[in-house]
Amino acid sequence: MLSETILTNFTMSTKLTDILQLPCGVTLKNRLSKSAMSENMGSRGYTSNEKFNRLYARWAEGGIGLLITGNVMVDRFALGEAHNVVIEKGIQDTNLPLWAAAGKREGTHIWVQLNHPGKQSPKSLSKEPVAPSAIPLKKPLNRLFNTPRALTEEEILDIIARFAYAAKVCKESGFTGVQIHGAHGYLVSQFLSPTHNQREDRWGGSLENRIRFVKEVYLAIRKEVGDSFPVGIKLNSADFQKGGFTQEDSREVIKQLSAMGMDLIEISGGTYEAPAMMGAAQKESTKLREAYFITYCEEVRKLVHSPLMLTGGFRSAQGMNAALESGVCDVIGIARSLAIQPDFPNQLLSGETITSQVKPLTTGWKFLDKTFPLEIIWYTDQLHLMGEGKIPNPKKSVLGSVLRMVYKLGKSSIKRVR
Predict the structure, then answer these.
(1) SS3 (DSSP) at 320
(2) How far apart are CA 318 and CA 322, in angstroms?
């Protein structure tokens, strides 16, 4: 009966206001989801705090159906940013239940995105980051990230166990699901990519070996949380690098994860080295349809019945509803729009004519624009404003945000958070 319900969701004309039942039986109140954005505002000791509670309560009140948190790390010695939240044995975060409760207002779901950065841990935080293989990031990013050390078999198994433990804590704390971060060049993505994974053991080489890590992470999580707790994943359509993770690879990964019971598969793309997730070099025909990865998602839709979440590029209710009505996806992912327009979902759901205020960012200096992830830095500043109980500021200086980040990195390299 459940499978028939899910198939009906895929074939009927769907709108933003429609509910969605996931394979595990859980229901989302509408088809809008906040895609993950790293908050980078954890407390000393890697714990969450009242800023997260304020931010997620604000978003829940804004009408979204599903909130996916910024990446929560599974190892305090493997951070993506200095102020990441970490869930691991030995860390007692008494605020987690409060954060979960804030995100569940208005019947909203809140899922924790679990992540390990692999080689994408800045020099100021990791003298020797780990990765599937000892391959550095390309210029100019090698100025910000050290060359990694290849993981041992024992370390790989330990990281898998860390993902499972973190998921268990999330469930016990009241969060309503978890998402594995398998995109944007972080560790899961590194294992999947033949560019970054050149191992010769059972974790590398063929696609079947490269997919082994994410499959083991999923199975370990599922063992801890059970079949009725939502587990999703964010995956690249491709990493847009020569010799890298291709769309053909991605389709096969999605087919296998779908068959294993993944509840929601979010489609994105790109890495720090090729940031397609930010809309770089999109065709005009794609821009007209708004979603960056919609053509790829159409291909995946023919292969799997798992719910698909499409993220990147959506700006209007018209574009979102068109994607849903076509059946190409089941959930619309939005992120940057919510950083400056927290009421965007309510406006979309009410039928109000509203468009996103997201626009290209620049510091005015080409070198800085190429060296630093402006979208991440500037929008993170907007999240911090809401975490402090303030309103977002779309006119905030991009250069000012970058300079403040550089200053903070300088301080943290002298006096590390860890």
Answers:
(1) helix
(2) 6
Compute the Cα dihedral for 322, 327, 330, 335 and give only its sign.
Answer: negative
90-129: b (≥16 Cβ within 10 Å) or e:
eeebebbebbbbbbbeeebbbbbbbbbbbbbbbebbbeeb
Question: Percent of the chain at pLDDT above 90?
Answer: 78
The answer to whether the Cα torsion of 170, 174, 336, 286 is positive or negative is positive
Nearest to 106 by CA among 343, 354, 355: 343
Domains of the chain: 2-359 (3.20.20.70)
b/e sequence 241-262, b meaning 16+ C-beta within 10 Å: beebbbbebbbebbebbbeeeb
Rounded Cα distance between 71 and 197, Å, is 22
Q: How many Cα neighbours within 13 Å face the side chain of 378?
A: 22
Beta bridge partners of 380: none
- In whole angstroms, give the CA distance from residue 153 to residue 354: 51
What is the CB neighbour count within 10 angstroms for residue 353? 8
Average pLDDT, the chain: 89
Most confident option among 6-20, 285-299, 393-407: 393-407
The token pair at 110 is 């809140």
In whole angstroms, how large is the CA radius of gyration of the chain? 20
pLDDT tens digits for range 243-260: 567 889 999 999 999 999
The H helix count followed by the E strand count for the chain is 16, 12
Q: What are the residues whose beta carbons fall under 8 Å from the beta carbon of 286, sequence distance 6 or more?
A: 292, 294, 295, 313
